[in-house]
Specification:
single chain; mainly beta; Immunoglobulin-like; eleven-stranded mixed sheet; 1 helix; about 10% helix
């Protein structure tokens, strides 16, 4: 079977998960891990592709499931994991992607109002410096998931 170039791109996009767009930014496959009962902290992950010619910045996140949500960076220093909030957000350069994953930048959900349950989802609003607000839906995978759940 021969596919036209556009069909191949559509197939790749569908395989990578849901997409949400704001201006020149495309957010792909927002996901989270399930949390144990009583947990007050969770995390969110996604990819932001900047298809524009100017940089933008992810500056905040809001969700009704958590009392507070921040953009965090996780890094290793001298064999010790360190996590810190990024008060000024994080840049997305033109033609590049920002990947939020368990081992780097991520969204930290604090003072959670209920556990995140595998197979469920939750909404959040991302705020970008130039593209503005974008509502996205996070799919919740297993507690130990390493990547977005497959639909």
């Amino acid at each position: 079977m021969m596919m036209k170039p556009g069909m191949a791109m559509q197939a790749a996009a569908a395989a990578s998960g849901p997409q949400f767009k704001a201006g020149d930014l495309v957010v792909t496959a927002p996901w989270s891990r399930a949390t144990p009962k009583g947990a007050k902290i969770g995390a969110g992950y996604l990819t932001v592709q900047n298809n524009g010619t100017t940089p933008d910045r992810l500056i905040s996140v809001e969700t009704e499931i958590a009392g507070k949500a921040d953009i965090h960076e996780m890094s290793m220093k001298d064999g010790v994991m360190q996590m810190r909030p990024l008060a000024g957000g994080v840049a997305i350069e033109p033609g590049k992607s920002l990947v939020l994953s368990p081992s780097g930048f991520h969204l930290m959900l604090m003072d959670m109002k209920k556990p995140l349950e595998q197979g469920q989802s939750f909404d959040a609003t991302l705020r970008f410096e130039k593209a503005g607000r974008l509502k996205v839906t996070f799919q919740i995978g297993s507690i130990g998931a390493a990547s977005a759940p497959k639909n």
